[in-house]
Amino acid sequence: MRPRAPAAAVTRKRALAVAMTLAATVAAWELGHGLWIHAKARLAQVLLHRAWERTVAGQARVKPWPWADTWPVARLRVPAHGVDLIVLDGVSGRTLAFGPGHASASASPGEVGTAFVTGHRDTHFRFLQHVSVGDVILVHAPGRAGGRYVVREIAVVDARRAVIRSDTGGDHLVLLTCYPFDAITPGGPLRYVVAADRAAS
């Protein structure tokens, strides 16, 4: 007969097996959750581009899906980085889950003043970390000629103290996202700011 393992050793092995199973389950859940967020962001952009086409054709406040509480207000492209995004109305958490959002209190894209557009650092606005001064941003808003903006300044600011000036003269664009890009937890006080000015035609 083989000697039986002590009860304490058996209990430790079972506890280790349970802990490993639990860790694997949590890891799979987190991975799946992360993949779902990225998949949802990509799918949303497909639906948003369809809504954008209807918006450009003259329809107002075209909802990309029936229960949406937002709609396309502009198209933002950054050719140097292969970026082509539909900008939504508003900056609520629900809106930013699907695309970058335009702060309605700021100037509308393509109008005189400063338009503020916000996006998540880990999805739609992740590309901002690769943008350089001098890069071109193309913005098209319904009923207006497309605008060509050139990045003038890039900065990291503390949202608790910084004031980003809203210039009422000229035509300016400010893109905002959380910082750092590789932060483990969301939120935090730092913001990555890309400021651009409309180029002369």
Principal-axis shape: elongated
Largest sheet: 8 strands, mixed, barrel
Mean pLDDT across all amino acids? 86
Strand content: 25-35%
Number of spatially distinct domains: 1
Low-confidence segments: none
Estimate the helix proportion, in percent: 25-40%
SSE arrangement, N to C: HEEHEEEEEE
* Rg, nearest Å: 23 Å
The CATH architecture name reads: Beta Barrel
CATH homology superfamily: Sortase
What is the CATH class name? Mainly Beta
C-alpha termini separation: 91 Å
Seen as an oligomer or otherwise, the chain set is: single chain
Condensed summary:
By secondary structure, this protein is of the alpha+beta class.
Describe the secondary-structure layout:
Elements: H1 7-56, E1 72-78, E2 83-89, H2 93-96, E3 101-102, E4 113-118, E5 136-140, E6 147-158, E7 171-178, E8 190-198
Parallel strand pairs: 2-3, 4-7
Antiparallel strand pairs: 1-2, 1-5, 3-4, 5-6, 6-8, 7-8
